[in-house]
């Protein structure tokens, strides 16, 4: 069975996603798209040259919309990260650009008969994921955002560092918005065979500091090089591979939660049919309140940003 993936937006993140897919041999066919024709052609040429030294071959196409028709997965990585150059790294700063581009890309997908799974990296992730689902008409479980898959990884790295263990040995989730209203659900975090809440008392761990470092991790990377790419691209490819391989992997991705009326990050089982099962965590009352607050923030912020931008355009 041939595996086929498309990457829309070949900036820092999209190019890194594409490189990881090519270097890892994760897809047989890779369709690349970007409004900068010279850039995307150069990337394709660079990947072609790399293949002579790779154990895998990947068939490449550039800016050919007909390729959408039989893609298993399309990754939306379009954006303008320089708009997020704010003290609080507010991902909604990109919305004034991405809100205009998403309907255009969605229409191209519809026009070319795309019926696969959509993985959204584009910020603000939860809102853009919702927009893609609305404009493409795809089933809600077939449209997913990377969400807090990256933020949870940052949290796990912080916990791992504090306890001197591999971050992959840490289990647990950041929930809610892929943005400033997210939080670490410490009741879900386990490591060294124990709840991290118990270890925090035994080993004097500063959980509040770790949570804030996970939340601000993207800004710290951005501050150093004016973009982020490796962490989020790896999260995106992990999500793509879960679909391609039907691995049915549990991970915190942006998926539509009926009880909150919005896309937000909450653990789900991901396989060939997208979100194949939604989990129901046994959260504390405080965590439930934080999640409801984050959901409300996503919905309220979307409404206010749309109203503000509409006024500016009037």
Task: Describe the protein in words.
45% of the residues lie in helices and 21% in strands. The strands form three sheets. A six-stranded parallel beta sheet has the order 3-2-1-4-5-6, sandwiched between helices. The protein is globular. By secondary structure, the protein is an alpha/beta fold. α1 (12-24) runs parallel beside α2. InterPro entries: L-lactate/malate_DH, L-lactate_DH_AS, Lactate/malate_DH_C, Lactate/malate_DH_N, Lactate_DH/Glyco_Ohase_4_C, NAD(P)-bd_dom_sf.
- Secondary-structure class: alpha/beta
Strand order of the largest sheet: 3-2-1-4-5-6
Largest sheet, if any?
6 strands, parallel
Number of strands: 12
Number of helices: 10
Instruction: Average the pLDDT over all residues and give the rounded result.
Output: 93
* Percent of residues in beta strands: 15-25%
Tell me the quaternary state. single chain
Helix content: 40-55%
Low-confidence spans: none
Order of helices and strands: EHEHEEHEHEHEEEHHHHEEEH
The dominant shape is globular
Could you give the distance between the termini? 50 Å
Radius of gyration of CA atoms, rounded to a whole number: 19 Å
Pfam family, one: Ldh_1_C
Organism: Limosilactobacillus walteri
Keywords: Oxidoreductase
Family: Belongs to the LDH/MDH superfamily. LDH family.
């Amino acid at each position: 069975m041939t595996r086929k993936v498309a990457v829309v937006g070949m900036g820092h993140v999209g190019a890194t996603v594409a490189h990881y897919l090519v270097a890892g041999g994760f897809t047989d066919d890779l369709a690349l798209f970007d409004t900068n024709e010279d850039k995307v052609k150069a990337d394709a040429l660079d990947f072609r040259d790399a293949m002579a030294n790779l154990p895998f071959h990947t068939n490449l196409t550039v800016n050919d919309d007909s390729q959408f028709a039989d893609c298993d997965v399309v990754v939306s990585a379009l954006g303008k990260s320089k708009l997020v150059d704010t003290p609080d790294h507010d991902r909604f700063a990109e919305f004034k650009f991405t809100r205009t581009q998403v309907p255009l890309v969605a229409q191209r997908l519809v026009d070319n008969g795309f019926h696969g799974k959509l993985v959204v990296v584009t910020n603000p992730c939860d809102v853009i994921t919702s927009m893609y689902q609305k404009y493409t008409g795809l089933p809600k479980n077939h449209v997913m955002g990377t969400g807090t898959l990256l933020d949870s990884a940052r949290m796990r790295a912080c916990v791992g560092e504090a306890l001197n263990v591999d971050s992959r040995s840490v289990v647990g989730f950041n929930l809610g918005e892929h943005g400033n209203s997210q939080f670490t659900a410490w009741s879900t975090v386990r490591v060294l065979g124990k709840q991290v809440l118990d270890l925090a008392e035994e080993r004097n761990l500063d959980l509040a500091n770790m949570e804030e470092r996970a939340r601000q991790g993207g800004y710290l990377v951005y501050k150093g090089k004016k973009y982020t790419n490796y962490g989020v691209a790896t999260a995106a490819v992990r999500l793509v591979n879960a679909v391609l391989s039907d691995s049915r992997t549990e991970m915190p991705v942006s998926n539509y939660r009926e009880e909150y009326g919005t896309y937000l990050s909450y653990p789900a089982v991901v396989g060939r049919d997208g979100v194949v099962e939604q989990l129901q965590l046994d959260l504390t009352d405080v965590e439930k309140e934080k999640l409801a607050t984050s959901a409300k923030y996503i919905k309220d912020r979307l409404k206010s940003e749309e109203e503000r931008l509409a006024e500016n355009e009037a």
